[in-house]
Amino acid sequence: MKEIINFNKPLITPIDEQFYEDINKKLSSFSGDGKYTRSVHSWLENYTKCFKALLTHSCTAALEMSAILLDIKKGDEVIMPSYTFVSTANAVALRGGIPRFIDIREDTLNIDEKCIERAINKKTKAIFPVHYAGVSCEMDFIKSLAKEYKLFIVEDAAQAILSTYKNRPLGSIGDLGTFSFHETKNIISGEGGALIINNEEFNSRAEIIREKGTNRTSYKRGNVEKYSWCDIGSSYLPSELVAAFLLKQLNIGDEITKERLLIWNRYHSMLESLEKNGFLKRPFIPKDCKHNGHIYYVLVDSNIRNLIVEKLFEENIQVATHYVPLHSSTAGLKYGRTSGSFDRTNKCAESIIRLPIWNGLTEKDQEYIVEKMAEILRILI
Fold it and tell me: Lesser CB count within 10 Å: N end or C end of the chain?
């Protein structure tokens, strides 16, 4: 029997010995916001050209901070795709706001920008586009709508570190952007995230919200004699250990991405004939988008999707489906509202299969995966 091919295998990189020397010499805080966090901030600011980057303990935290910064209140609506992770909607619901779910595009599985305008009403405050699989939403169109209706944009770029739209880094285009460094992502720190501030008006308050609602960051810079409670907030910062691990990964991020794209492109080539023969549908990348190889998925007949997954597991190939659409989930029905139909969202959720993709996955294993996929499809169709 073939050895199990894992769906995901986190890339573990060593932390530089200098980190431990710095901690022992008390040259860096261990709890957070020390030398290594500052280095991560500098890396992200140089990469995105934002006004400020703030490391957080998760992308969830960065999204929650975004909702606070936008002053989302009870009854305020935020437009987002139904096909996303719960954190996108939770950030809004936690403030008493209403996630307004809309359908996705059939080609990229991103928010359908042409469905946004009819979801806008007098209660709409923001748009949360989600860059699925590291492939950009149609940001020029979304920005033009936001400008026309005076709405904020928060990019959920959880999956999109080192992806671009018209040569601009994702996360750097909206008023705010968020990244994830969870172990399932390309660049990781176990848990972790970041808030990217592209609208200067949010700079000062973001620091306060992140530090439990205090001006402790200003105090550490020597700007105030004593720090105190200034605003609402929470403990959104990670430890220096997380920052040190992440810094190492960011510094080799181009190499990590290059290998992921090599694996992604192999799949794309190997599966071309199955798509031409009508067995499945491969991902689509718009010409203005440069992606990071985060996810490789195929779309199959929804009537046999679960059986395909089951048979692949029998062959020791760990694959995965993805989100339960939020508009039909228990909490989504309670806290959210909908606009339009969800034909494409529902179809995607019922037909998607995500294939193993991680740094170190061999060409031989990919050949085995595609071979078994082809065998199963030819039997079932």
Answer: N
